[in-house]
Specification:
This protein has 147 residues and is an alpha/beta fold. It contains three helices and nine strands; from the N terminus they run βαββββαββαββ.
């Protein structure tokens, strides 16, 4: 039988101060903390994934290793960019909409649901709840609210 991958269960980042990292990720992305598990802290990512935060004495710099987080739309990307640059004084990578290194050197790319390469997300319950549909030009459009 062929192996079938259903998605990514978790990612792990290394930091030198887990408490500060928890505050950073809760503030910038509104991540909720989970209990238990290996590492200093666990953050819920979406409905089915999590991020483990490991506290280490010495960080090892990465070259290209990174992960991507998804937010709803361009407005939320703008909010993240503003908080990163104004509150945390972080520099954004100029070749991407929202690509940065957190205060511990972990590289994160932030995208939104308007990316046509993300059509594979449509079956996900959280995307359906958000009312995302794709137009003929393959740009994601939020469904119009009816009152």
């Amino acid at each position: 039988m062929a192996v079938q991958v259903y998605g990514c269960n978790h990612i792990v980042i290394e930091v030198t101060d887990a408490k500060k990292a928890v505050k950073f990720y809760a503030d910038v992305f509104g991540l909720k903390m989970l209990r238990g598990g290996e590492g200093a802290a666990w953050c819920k990512l979406g409905e089915h994934q999590f991020m483990a935060i490991f506290e280490v004495d010495q960080l090892q710099p990465d070259r290209v290793k990174h992960f991507g987080l998804m937010v709803r739309d361009e407005q939320q990307i703008k909010e993240v960019r503003k908080k990163l640059t104004q509150t945390y004084k972080l520099t954004l990578h100029p070749d991407f909409r929202c690509d940065f290194h957190d205060p511990w050197g972990n590289r994160i790319q932030v995208g939104d649901l308007s990316d046509e390469s993300l059509v594979w997300l449509l079956p996900y319950q959280e995307v359906q709840k958000a009312g995302i549909t794709f137009t003929k030009t393959l740009r994601a459009q939020p469904r119009k609210e009816t009152t």
